[in-house]
Amino acid sequence: MLIGRSGGWLGMAVLVAGLAAGEASADAKEHLSGHGGLAQPLQRVIRVERARGPVFVMVPVAYVFGLVDSPKGSYCSPSIRAVNSSNAPIEELVFGIDFKTKGGQEAGSAIVRFDNIKIGRQDTQYFYQLSVSSCHGLEGQVSVVRCTYTSGEECVEDVRVVEHGTIPLRPKSP
After folding, report:
1. Measuring CA to CA, which residue among 112, 119, 85 is closest to residue 169?
2. Long-range own/partner contacts, residues 105-111 (CB < 8 A, 24 or more apart)
3. Is residue 84 pLDDT above 70, yes or no?
4. 0.70 cut: is pTM over it?
5. C-alpha neighbours within 13 Å on the C-beta side of residue 48
6. What's the structural domain count of the chain?
7. CB 90 within 8 A of CB 116
8. Res 49: pLDDT
9. 140-150: pLDDT as tens digits
10. Does residue 89 sit in the same domain as residue 21?
């Protein structure tokens, strides 16, 4: 008799727990899918914008290659670095750099593409040859062509150029 009563109470408890879990699941589905059962991104549902951080672009170091006595002479070769300090992985970052001497003489230009930069990571690309024999007195103007997080969101506004380093960079004026 005691076993029958305890089994009944246990059965009743399982039934009540099952009903509560089913109700909570249906409630969550309605909140996440909205009206009509269509899926929505969680951020739209909770109406909170995700905080993002900067994506830095810089030229931390540049090398001079070639021999002074060589008929082709020497040339400056900058290392172009992108650092993802945001809280989302970057799918693609494309930008152009126009290099000039402080006197305004053209020194070369580059279009640079980085992809799959994880959170807190950096990537470096090497530009082969500028048309000047020294890396001193150069500056670069950067224009961002495209920046996309892996979520599909744009990150063009998050790109910051670093005005310090071997070759200081500045954003290109519109």
Report:
1. 112
2. 105/132, 106/131, 107/76, 107/131, 107/132, 107/138, 108/132, 110/80, 111/145
3. yes
4. no
5. 4
6. 2
7. yes
8. 57
9. 999 999 999 99
10. no
